[in-house]
Write a structure and sequence with these properties.
Layout lengths: L3 E7 L2 E7 L10 E4 L10 H9 L4 E4 L18 H14 L5 E5 L1 H10 L8 E4 L8 H10 L1 H10 L9 H8 L8 H7 L6 H4 L16 E6 L7 H11 L2 E5 L12 H14 L24
Parallel strand pairs: 3-4, 3-5, 5-6, 6-7, 7-8
Antiparallel strand pairs: 1-2, 2-4
Helix pairs in contact: 2-3, 4-5, 6-7
Amino acid sequence: GLPLLERTVQDGIERVQCRPAEGGEDRPPLLFVHGMWHGAFCWREWQVQFAERGWESHAFSLPGHGGSRPRRHLSWATQGYYLRFLKAEIERMEREPVLVGHSLGAGLIQRLLKEQDDFPAAVMLAPIYAREMLSVIDNRFREDLWGSLACFLVLTATPSIRNAELVKRMFLSESSMIEPEELRGQLSPESLLVLLQHNPPFWFPPKEIETPLLWLAPDHDTLMKVGPSLRSARVLGAQAEIVPDTAHDLMFDRRSPLTVQRIHDWLIEAGVRTAPEALPWPAGEAAPVPEAV
């Protein structure tokens, strides 16, 4: 059978759940956390591919992103504000998930791990840096001066995605499977504060992390450069790997099935399993078959 993909909007929050056709009960679910401007839409192909490998997954859109309605003006949306919604998604789940974050989503996971460090595993994709983001802001001024000035004038990061050419330069490469115009049409307005506050003295990375971490750095990422990204991985004690010939939005790359396979292999190698007490039936027994109605 085919994986079951289901989209819902409840209490203003968009969620996409994907279940494998069979199996997966001995594994924790994956929880996908999108980055700036993006939404749950960016994970759909990956959710299907992971389901084909036996993983249940959940993705959601932060308020004001994707199909989730805004709840606060973006000028005042902080990482702490977004983190509340990530925590709420985790609380909804029956089992502790493997956290998979892209860009700012990986930053939210870093922030969460300072408070709760007992997840089965976490995967960081093109993550924001561990210690600071001022260097990224500086690079944006060099590459898009007027757009960066406009961001500070309107106190949002929305001017950074004002045309398809900028979207292409920031997120995509020649091997991306989505056109810049199509991607831009799905992107949402974004907060500027989430970047500004990811710097000292407002932010310091966790000193020790027990949760197993995989850190994937695309080598053609124009936003999160490979060198600083790998140094950030060392700060957090993560296993770092470079994803070759891939841009920031690596989930849209033609090589993305290889990345999905690498994450799957790493999770298996790390021995990620659902604890027996978390299973809805005794370990070693088959799942109960629902009675016909």
